[in-house]
Amino acid sequence: MKELQLYNVDQSDNVFIHALDKKLTITSPATEVFNDFQEHEPVKVNGDVKAKDALILMKRADTEMKLVVSSHGDFLGLISSNELNEQNIISEVSRGVSRDDVLVQDLMISKYKLHAFDYEELSRANVSDVVSSLRNYGLRHCLVVERNQHQIKGVISANDIARALQVPLSLNERSSFGHLYNAIANH
Q1: Cα 122 to Cα 149: distance, rounded to the nearest angstrom
Q2: Where is each CBS domain found (predicted)?
Q3: What is the DSSP letter of 72?
Q4: Of 28, 102, 140, 176, which sits with the fewest C-beta atoms within 10 Å of its C-beta?
Q5: Half-sphere exposure of 97 (CA within 13 A, CB side)
């Protein structure tokens, strides 16, 4: 076995950040802004997790959204910090649920209420098409599905698009895509 030599970290050493060969623009292919689950494992949370614990986990992991799954791994819906807000928790408490017993599945957006783009159609669209479409629906997240196979392929996030385009996005806006669309239009 070969022993590797160790070196001291120099004061000028820094973290390497991969620079993309080309900058993302509104005319870039839409497939460049969606989180493909074949390339990146989706972040998941069990529906039986307490809402307050899920919010802490999301903040620690620096994620804005998680897929909600059953204890058997079946897809149930999506949860984001928007759904985990104080107002929604109080709404559950007003229905007689103890604050400590409010679960992710009580606040999540059920898969039956979610919208999705077909991957085939998305592959022929550009970023501007996506932003415009989602602005019209007022969505912050949208799934991407392969309709013929009934598989959820990924998700598109307003935050990811804003970050990639390097435009500001206020998470407090009710319609993040609307805000993003305006930022892009003025960019």
Answers
A1: 16
A2: 108-171
A3: T
A4: 28
A5: 18
> What is the chain's length?
187
Q: Is the dihedral of CA 171, 176, 182, 187 positive or negative?
A: positive
**Which domains can be identified in the chain, with CATH numbers?**
30-185 (3.10.580.10)
Residues sharing a CB contact under 8 Å with residue 123, sequence separation 6 or more, in sequence order: 29, 30, 31
Whole-model pTM: value is: 0.74
CA of 129: how far to CAs of 25, 31, 33, 122, in Å?
A: 12, 11, 12, 9
Mode of pairing for the β-strands spanning 141-146 and 116-118: parallel
CA angle 158, 183, 24 (to 5 degrees): 65
Give per-10-residue mean pLDDT for the chain (187 aa): 72 60 82 91 94 92 90 94 92 94 96 93 94 84 91 89 76 47 57
